[in-house]
Amino acid sequence: MIFERKNKIIVLWLWLGFAMILIQILLGGITRLTGSGLSITKWDIVTGIVFPVGEQKWNYYFDLYKQTPQFQKINQDMNLEQFKFIFFWEYFHRLWARLMGLVFVIPFLFFLFKKWLDKTAIKRLIIVVLLAAFVASLGWIMVASGLTQRPWVNAYKLSFHLLAAVLLLSYLYYTIIKTQEVFSIKSRPKEINGLLLILIFLTVFQIFLGGVMAGMKAGLAAPTWPKIQGNWIPDQIYQLTSIDNYLFTEYEISHTGPVVVQFFHRSVAYLIFALIIWFCYSVFKWSNRVQWKVLGLLMICLFQVFIGIWTVIHCIGYIPLWPAVIHQLFGILLLIYILGLYFRFELVKTNNQG
After folding, report:
1. 235 and 109 in one domain?
2. Phi and psi for 52 in degrees, rounded to 5?
3. Are residues 208 and 165 in the same domain?
4. Within this chain, do residues 220 and 170 fall inside the same structural domain, yes or no?
5. Who's near 179: CB < 8 A, 6+ residues apart?
6. Which residue, among 96, 216, 65, has the nearest Cα to 155 in the 3D structure?
7. Cα–Cα distance measured from residue 23 to residue 330, given in angstroms and rounded to the nearest whole number
8. Are residues 215 and 174 in the same domain?
9. Does residue 292 sit in the same domain as residue 313?
10. Per-residue pLDDT at 298
11. pLDDT of amino acid 252
12. What is the model's pLDDT at position 46?
């Protein structure tokens, strides 16, 4: 009973960390979509956690922001009140990261002191710490990319930062599963296992493309569906060998790169949707019974497709904040759900199939 109580406390702590990381990813999305990511050019380790109070302090941070390419090239007309808005989101994003560190480290040290963790759990949690440090380092590299010449952070560095955060979340989820129970998956057809692995890979890749979409504001380049700029396959796709600059380096000065990225993002979405339907059919064919967990996957995917379409067709002049954030959230939840199926989904063949 004592061991069970300790285990429940540890699992609850891990789920709290999971929820905080998920919130942090959403805060990162809000920060990007509101153009807030470059509002804080200096972050002191101790004093940086104190929110600015008083006109003198606000003018100090505003003057620092005025030296950035983003202000000089895009936001020259921004006033102090508008700056306070973008400052808040970046401040909250960074402060939440600090809070996550405290919520994780203090209980971790307590559990170590009380010897509640076995060697395997300690190794997994050390990996979590290392992944968190990796995410933080990529975050600063991302911010630094927008403080020299370009007025925005680099879209690809943004996406790698997002991908690292999703990897951290996924590994923590795996750690929670392992901590909750000792489990073994019963026999499943190779087809079903293979489909789950392909879905995991494609969903991770799709999240990366979604980050590039956000970084390039690619939705603004073609706010239409189902066609892109009036074509099923945009003309830019046929010119891929000659548009590498517009796709990887100078995407701010042309819609070419954003259109290409949007096309691939949509294409991978259709592929994932088709594979999930195939997966549902394969499960039913093999077990001959309704699998509600599998239908849940289909429902999440359907909603994700719907909110993605709704977001892109409303990207007229600006990206709608909350639909875009919800779209990102359900993309991550879709990945977590697929991971849950891969690690925990038990499928037993029915007797009437011989």
Report:
1. no
2. -60, 135
3. no
4. no
5. 7, 10, 11, 14, 121
6. 216
7. 13
8. no
9. yes
10. 94
11. 66
12. 58
What Cα–Cα distance (Å) separates residue 268 from each residue in 67, 193, 205, 261? 39, 20, 8, 11
Q: Report how many domains make up the chain.
A: 2
Q: Does pLDDT of 343 surpass 90?
A: no
- Which of 182, 203, 238 lies at the terminal end of a domain, its last residue? 182
Q: Domain containing 112: what range?
A: 1-182
Between CA 11 and CA 180 the distance in angstroms is 7
**Per-residue tokens: 22:** 């998920």
User: Which of 8 and 301 is assigned the larger pLDDT?
Assistant: 301
Q: How far apart are CA 175 and CA 163, in angstroms?
A: 18
345 lies in the same domain as 207: yes
Show Cβ contacts of residue 187 under 8 Å, excluding neighbours closer than 6 positions. Answer: 347, 348, 349
175 lies in the same domain as 248: no
d(CA 187, CA 347): 7
Among 133, 152, 182, which residue terminates a domain?
182
Site of tokens 């548009």: 243
Q: What is the pLDDT of residue 353?
A: 44
Q: Give the number of residues written for the chain.
A: 354
User: What CA–CA distance (Å, rounded) separates 218 from 181?
Assistant: 43
Question: Which residues, in sequence order, are CB contacts of 326 under 8 Å at separation 6+?
Answer: 307
The reported pTM is 0.89
Inter-helix orientation angle 155-180/321-344, to 10°:
40
Tokens of 230: 């009036």
Provide the residue type at 124 as one letter. R
What average pLDDT score do residues 162-174 get? 95
Query: Same structural domain for residues 210 and 228?
Result: yes
